Predict the 3D structure of the following.
Amino acid sequence: MWSDTTSVFLLIAVVAVLMASNRVRFDVVALLVVLFLMLSGILTVGEALAGFGSPVVMLVACLLVVGEMLDRTGVAAAIGDWILKKGGASETRLYILIMAAAAMLGAVMSSTAVVAIFIPIVLRIARETGAQASRLLIPMSYAALISGMLTLIATTPNLVVSEELKEAGYTEFGFFSFTPVGLAVLAVAIAYILLLGRRLLPVQAQDANETQGARAVFDMWEDYRSTTTYRSAVISENSPLSGTSIMDAALESRFDVQILGVVHNRKGVEERVPLPPSTTVLEAGDTLLFVGTEVALDVLETELSLTPITETERNVRRWLWELGAASVLIHPESEFIGKSLGECEFSSHYNLHVLGMRRNRTPVEDYMNVNLAASDSLFMVGPWSSIRQLQSRHHDFVVTETPVEQAQVVPAYRRMPIALTILSVMVLLSILNIIPLVATVIMAALAAVFTRCMTMEDAYHSIHWSSLVLVAGMLPMADALEKTGGTAMIFDGLMQGFGDAGPGTMLTVLFFLTAALSLFLSNTASAVLVAPIAIVAAESLGVSPYPFAVAVLIAASAAFVTPVSTPVVTLVVDPGRYQFMDFVKVGVPLLFLTWLTTLVVAPMVFPYSTP
């Protein structure tokens, strides 16, 4: 007889096949699940749609906003700078720092977002240290997966398991409840990579260290300049520039230099102004960024009592978040043909400076006084907003190239301290459990908008709506399994096979059941299905459900074995030029080490005897 229970098991099998095939979007599969449960009568319309009203959905949405805030304010980029500074050329230090940083950042934001952020960081580290990116990207992605084991909000399965505990009448997990288990797994994973995993990682004949396509801004500039360079200098106390506006100082006309930026330092607060307006008043302690010939810059510094400083990599990066660049061809019908650059007044009309000119692919020396001709190529510098506006002037210009730094701009880096404050308050409130977790996370997301770390439009764009639909659509499947007796059937099978072997064996079975399902289903769907089974199994054995619940959420994040189980791993396949078996060789031992660590540590943190 065809029963509702059979229908649900068949549904799970179909969902597994569709997800494993990767030919149907996961969110579409989730909506098909809702539709089937509704039309089959297994669940009522309200029950089938209940997942869309779950607190988990709002939690996931707001946490994605918080993660975007950390990205837009430069927290992730700052971590990359720190890794490069501390790691140096030591592969061992790089493994430790990259894995620890990816895990720590992923503990408070989406693991997928962490990998997306860290890929350019790792590629940059590989370029600058000579390491192979293919030997760094897999460990980084595995650490991002492990980050899901560190805090309650790190990944959706954790929230799902915690909600299942709450619905079963138990106290839900706290923010750091299972962090000791996750930290133990992270420590074991780092040790494994250092001692054995690094020997299993592939060595590519041609590594993906070089960014394809776009070039760096200084490489672009090199095509145009012959004698010009850039330099930074601080205005001293006795400089005649102190208290003078840029217009009155007439630096560009007197010394034949261009001012690209000024850094005001007022009471220890740094304000970076790209292409400052002529009315800007300069003060002692301000830093000026100039472009000109070496001779002109020497004369400028001597006559105006300026102290030259060496630009650090951090300062250069901050300027590149403010100042963009582009190679531009003069359109044959441009209104600027026949005019000199001085007559074009690009600075006042477009807020852009021209730092070089090529004609017939050859740099022009005295380009400021040369009349423009069709197909002349200019190297323009200015705020990124001005560069984007330039791309819309099709009748005058043709933007032929923009630098790779355009994709690495951190638009709200000045608000990094605010973002860190919001994050700290969110974590603190979550730990203290003063207000519900969902309210805490909503407050953090709103604070990101109210403090202008991002706009409301940015917040909406940061939400992966397909992920929300996936979560909401899969949650009712566990209810259907429970309602039709499927959960009891699976539980009976587990008890008959392993009920007499003790809680350690049951924890092992639940761990590998979740890990196996995660090979075919999403980790969220796996957690949805196994979490209620784990709770019922614990109740039947008369032990605490918490070790079993921890095993489920740890296993849900242990998708190390294949590159298709989760986007966290899939993202590194192309930049690392990996093969499928690369993940099998490195991931299978790590999966078993994760199980062994969970088997030992979880009962220490959550004893079986404590309900």
Observations:
- The chain is about 55% helix and 10% strand.
- Residues 476 and 517 are 17 Å apart (CA to CA).
- The first strand starts at residue 228 and ends at 235.
